[in-house]
Design brief:
Layout (H helix, E strand, L loop, with lengths): L1 H43 L25 E4 L2 E4 L9 E7 L23 E2 L6 E2 L17 E2 L4 E6 L10 E5 L17 H4 L4 E5 L4 H5 L12 H4 L5
Parallel strand pairs: 2-4, 5-6, 8-9
Antiparallel strand pairs: 1-2, 3-7, 7-9
Length: 232
């Protein structure tokens, strides 16, 4: 009797799984059909094409009102790149937390120390250390240096005037928590910033430096890479 009951249970579970898969397959087929119908309708002129949401955004005007490329922050004064042809000012390679080395390795990010001197912010910081490299799928990334001291942030802005109140868009690079860098040329935010938004990108710890969790480390280990991504 027990064997028969177990067989019925397994059979019931198998039938339920089949029904779930069939339901998902129907949804996929329906979605593909809807996409095909819309594509056909657009080709025939019956449905207007889907608009690019960025097309309606205003383009920042290039002028002296962009502000200065030297700004004061809570961690010190930054000297960024001057406005480009579109009036976009950029600040790159800014350390936003304490360097995650020595006693700060595998720890939650700590506040960046104040820097009394004017800091150059015209070049990207190094990619976070990875056994794979910055991005093996992209040509030219092998030249990006790597370092444990990698937690830097980059900003592209149409203005540095205080209280300008621009919307902010933050880009977190991919790579499966194993590789990647905000310095990859594809992620340059200068063009997007021409739509009157501030664009921010940054590095975060990768691989064992960001996600190693063992009993020999404290409770902060295993999530330090995610902690780096809490940007305010």
């Amino acid at each position: 009797m027990e064997a028969d009951s177990a067989t019925q249970t397994l059979t019931g579970n198998g039938e339920s799984s089949v029904r779930v898969l069939e339901g998902r397959l129907v949804c996929i087929i329906a979605l593909c059909a809807m996409m095909a119908v819309r594509a056909w309708a657009q080709d025939s002129g019956d449905v207007p094409p889907i608009a690019n949401p960025f097309d309606s955004l205003p383009i920042a005007q290039s002028s002296a009102s962009s502000g200065s490329n030297v700004v004061a922050t809570t961690s010190g004064t930054l000297h960024g790149s001057p406005p480009d042809a579109n009036g976009i000012i950029s600040f790159k390679g800014i350390p936003f937390v304490q360097a995650p080395v020595g006693l700060y390795r595998w720890r939650a990010p700590q506040p960046a120390p104040a820097r009394p001197d004017i800091q150059d912010a015209t070049a990207f910081g190094p990619a976070c250390l990875s056994t794979i490299g910055p991005d093996p799928s992209r040509a030219g990334t092998a030249t990006i240096p790597q370092s444990e001291d990698c937690l830097t942030i980059n900003v592209w802005t149409p203005t540095t005037i205080r209280n300008a109140r621009k919307p902010v868009m933050v880009w977190i690079h991919g790579g499966g928590f194993q590789f990647g860098s905000s310095a990859i040329s594809t992620y340059d935010g200068s063009l997007l910033a021409t739509h009157d938004v501030v664009v921010v990108s940054f590095n975060y710890r990768l691989g064992v430096f960001g996600f190693l969790a063992t009993s020999g480390l404290d409770d902060e280990s295993g999530t330090s890479g995610c902690g780096d991504c809490w940007i305010r």
